[in-house]
Each structure stands twice: as C-alpha cells, then as structure tokens.
User: Which sequence fits this backbone?
RNA sequence: GGCCCCAUCGUCUAGCGGUUAGGAUCCAUGGUUUUCAUCCAUGUUACCGGAGUUCGAGUCUCCGUGGGGUCACCA
C-alpha cells in the first residue's frame, strides 16, 4: 500500500508551493488506492501557532483534499522521540555532546577563517572522561565519516553525496531535550508507514541526514521524489513576500478550487498535451515519474484562463450558491437562469461575476461621460422613445427573444442599423457601452424596470 | 565559498538519436456579436555556448556559462 504525507510546519498559512506538493502526494496515494496523511510539524514551540495549523486544515477543506486518519501533531509525540533517542544512546549510535554554544561558535569561526567547511569536530564522539560542569548536553548521532550516501530519487535519478563533504555528527536532541527536525521527520515517516515521500527539492540536501537516522534505527528507507521549486518572476524560491501565495486568498479573489488544483497540477507535471483535468483524471493519470526536473516560474495567466473555463462549465445552481460568498444572493430571483447564462461566459472569477451581475441588477448610478457622447447623438432619443412605447404597449414580455423582436421592429421601421438602438439603449440600461446582451438584460430586469431606466436616460439627456 | 540540482517560445510544457521542434497561455490580426467578453480562425516567438560520440544530436558524454537550492541546538 502506498502511503504518502504532507507535513507542513504551522508557522503561517498554506501557500501555493506547499499546496502543490500536497496535491501531488494526495493524487499519488489516491491513484494507488493508498493513504494520504497529514502531519503537523510543530516542534518549534516559539514559532508555531495553533491558529496556523487550523488555517492549513481549513484550506484543505476548501480544496476538497481529504487526508486519511487523524492529523498527527509532532508536539504530542515527545515520548516516542525520547524513546528512540534513548535507544540510539544505549546502542552507542548517539552520544551526549558537552560543547557549549560559545565553543561551537569559535570552532566555526576558525574553520571559516581557514576556508574549511564548518562542521562539528567530533570532540565528544568517543568521550570517556568527566563531563564539564554547567553544560546541558545536546545529543548527536554518529554519522558515517566517509563513504557515499546514495539517494535514489524518483524525479532526479540517482544522486550521490560524499559523507565527508556534507555530514557531521548532527544534533538530534537539543539541550532542553527536544528533538530536531531531521530526526523527527525520519522517525515519523518510518512509524507512520510512509513509503513514498514527495516533497520540495529544497529538502534534497536533508535527505542524506535522514537516511543516517533511518539506518541507525533500522528502518527501511522510503522512495523519495524531490519536486523542483516554484520560483517567482525574479527566479527565486517563492516566498511569502511574493504576495498572493496564501491559498485562501484565491478563494477571496473568486477562484474555484478545481481551477486552482488544475493549474497547480500542471506546474511541474504534465501528461502529454493535456491541459484540462477533472479531479478523477488527476487521480488516475498522475504519476511522479512525469514530474519535471527543472523549476517553474509562478505566473497566473493560465490560472485565469482555467478559472474562466470552469466557471462556464459550472451549473447555475452551484454558481448561485458560490456567489453568496461574494455578497450576491440570487436564490429568489425569478430570472436567475437567464442572468447567469448571460454572465458566466464573460467572467474570469466569481468575484468578477458577482460584480458584473450587480452592474445589471442595480440601476446605474451615473452614465459614463464618453459613452453618453458616443451613444446620444443623431436621433438616439427618438429611437429610444419609439422603443419605449413598444415596450410599454407590449403585453407579454418575458424571454430575451420577446425584447429582441421589439428591437428588431424598431430597426426595421426606422430603417436604422442595430447599433443605432443598441448603443443608447445599453447606456440607458447599464450606464456604459459594454456589457451582456441587451435582450437578456431586459428580460432579467423586467418590463417596468426596463422602462424606468429608459425614461431616466431620456430625461437626463433632453 | 563547499556540496547538490537544473537549462526547449515571455510563461506552463511535449519531445525520450532521424519531426517543417508539437500543444496551451499571453500578445497581434481577422471573423462572429448592436458593444465588451466569450467563441472560431490565422500569425509572431524557443532547443544557453563549445567540443566529442554518431551516417545523423534539442535528445548521449565532457567542459564551460548561467540560474537555483542548501550548508543551525529552524522546519
């Protein structure tokens, strides 16, 4: 059984990069009928917050990414880590190091001055004497001093590191007894049965350290897939400074979860030329072997296109519900089908859609200056009056086509082009020269409101 | 600086030794529309450089160059 995981540290909101690796992990588990688990890495008591953890869970809910089983919090597993640390101590695979912070600092400075790699010198590795007074020891793991560590990465291929280049006896427990990241990650992944680890390639250089822990504890090493970073337009790792990296900000901006996921799944991964993926297709087609090796630049042009696509394909009943998030309640509007059909074709986001709808159902507060000039010249007033009379005299006006017939009559009788009635009428109804089809607009507004808006415009321009 | 990774249109990408280097997005133009948007059609734009292997290299190898990541008692 394939078990994958997403393991964020709750220092802030869920961001785009994290979401993409979470999505990849989720899809890979689902494709294999496996499990996708969520683990909160909150061992840094100073920087973590419960609110941030909740925000991450909320974001997952919005996106519909369900995790399997209970959420694991590392902060609640201290006794487990303590047990394995003790085991390594007992087996002589780890040891207490009494070097003080000051001593460590001077060691580093000397090494830097000599242009050497900064690393712990192994001073207490085989220490047998009496420890110095007044120093709370850290615990270090005995890492191999030579030889090579091979990471067999599912994305990048086989990567080998020389132990002497990158390893030293790194700390697995701090002076206060709390375990460190590279230790707990390996322990938890092993204990939770994670056998497929998909994560950002900024973790690639941590992997040899984690392998040291796996081997010391006798755990089997999972398959790793290190996915390339997402970069900002400057070509640097995407960070919180780049703006709009909070996943929930996309909800506020009016993006559909599916559009966001479709956008992200194609960032660094592809399946031939396919661009549009249903959730079901993502779950059956995703395979980490098709992940790109190179970083990609974050650019939301395509997201807008996808979002527009998915809005067009969302049923009106569902749109009605979604639009309530953007202060638009249409539930009791009798012409909402016509209205939504007219607007959903032209909006890139739900927010924009709500705004466009409000522009129709709210009377124009003013008329666009340029639009007036352009539309109200020649016999525009006469045309509008003729049309208004026809509307006023008509008995059954419901459908867009009913209004269209009346417009057609005016055009025929007055021997004018459609534009001669369309432009002033559009300004009268909407206050500007662009917008949805007028027949639909009038149908939505109804006879009375249509007449009122026309007369208002005539009065304002007489 | 050490170590590691990467390199095809502006952007996302296909390509896995022989292709007029494909798709999408963006942009431009035309068509449709009373308008704007949608939609449809067309177009501009790419293999970082140099050696080598090969009959043949975007594809394999090496060397450059460029970019990125990482080097904590942070995760």
Assistant:
């Amino acid at each position: 059984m394939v078990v994958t995981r997403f393991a964020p540290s709750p220092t802030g909101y869920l961001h785009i990069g994290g979401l993409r690796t979470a999505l990849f992990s989720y899809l890979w588990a689902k494709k294999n009928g496996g499990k996708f688990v969520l683990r909160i890495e909150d061992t840094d008591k100073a920087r973590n917050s419960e609110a941030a953890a909740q925000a991450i869970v909320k974001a997952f809910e919005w996106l519909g990414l369900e995790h399997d089983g209970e959420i694991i919090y590392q902060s609640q597993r201290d006794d487990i880590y303590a047990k394995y640390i003790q085991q390594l101590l007992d087996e002589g695979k780890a040891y207490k190091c009494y070097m003080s912070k000051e001593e460590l600092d001077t060691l580093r400075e000397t090494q830097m001055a000599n242009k050497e790699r900064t690393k712990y010198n192994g001073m207490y590795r085989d220490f047998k004497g009496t420890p110095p007074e007044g120093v709370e020891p850290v615990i270090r793991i005995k890492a191999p001093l030579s030889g090579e560590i091979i990471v067999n990465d599912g994305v990048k291929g086989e990567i080998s590191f020389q132990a002497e280049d990158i390893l030293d006896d790194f700390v697995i427990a701090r002076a206060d007894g709390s375990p460190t990241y590279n230790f707990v990650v390996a322990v938890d992944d092993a204990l939770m049965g994670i056998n497929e680890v998909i994560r950002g390639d900024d973790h690639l250089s941590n992997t040899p350290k984690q392998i040291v822990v796996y081997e010391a504890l006798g755990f089997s090493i999972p398959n790793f897939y290190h996915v390339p970073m997402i970069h900002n337009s400057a070509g640097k790792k995407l960070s919180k400074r780049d703006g709009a990296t909070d996943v929930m900000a996309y909800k506020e901006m009016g993006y559909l979860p599916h559009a966001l996921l479709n956008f992200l799944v194609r960032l660094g991964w592809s399946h031939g030329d396919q661009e549009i993926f249903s959730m079901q297709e993502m779950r059956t087609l995703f395979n980490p072997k098709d992940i790109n090796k190179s970083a990609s630049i974050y650019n939301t042009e395509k997201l807008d296109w996808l979002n527009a696509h998915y809005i067009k394909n969302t049923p009106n009943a569902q749109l009605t519900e979604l639009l309530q998030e953007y202060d638009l309640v249409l539930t009791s509007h009798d012409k909402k089908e016509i209205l939504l059909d007219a607007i959903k074709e032209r909006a890139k986001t739900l927010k924009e859609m709500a705004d466009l709808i409000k522009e129709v159902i709210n009377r124009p507060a003013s008329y666009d200056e340029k639009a007036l000039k352009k539309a109200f010249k020649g016999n525009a007033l006469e045309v509008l009056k003729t049309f208004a009379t026809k509307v006023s005299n008509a008995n059954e006006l419901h459908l867009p086509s009913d209004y269209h017939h009346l417009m057609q009559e005016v055009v025929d009788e007055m021997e004018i082009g459609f534009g001669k009635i369309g432009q002033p009428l559009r300004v009268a109804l909407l206050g500007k020269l662009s917008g949805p089809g007028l027949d639909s607009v009038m149908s939505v507004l109804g006879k009375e409101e249509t007449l009122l808006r026309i007369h208002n415009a005539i009065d304002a321009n007489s």
